[in-house]
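seq as requested:
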Amino acid sequence: MKKLFELFDEIGLPYFRQGSLSDEDYQPSFFTFWNVDTPNEAFYDNDESCFIEYIQVGFYTNDANKIYSVMDDFIERAKQKGFILAGRAQDANADKDDYFGRVCYLRIKNKVED
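struct tokens:
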């Protein structure tokens, strides 16, 4: 997740674990993340040697002009940093009527550290 947090910091918008926001915490624009799954990927001598983090990333904003451009920028930066994307972003429901949402799905391959 460290690489993902570094990417969020580079973009400069706040980010939160999906489902952790209260109505008072809503920022004008922000990202959310959720670890969907973390299967082991490769094995050596009966030990895992790497694992894949499957991450859902959401972008939410109350500015309709940003909903596509910010998520497209995030996706391009994620690809440059070696993230594997499962397709492009898609629209997502937002909990507030005056907010718009987009989500995408990333895979992050990690080596198991000793």
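Residues 67-80 form the longest helix (14 residues).
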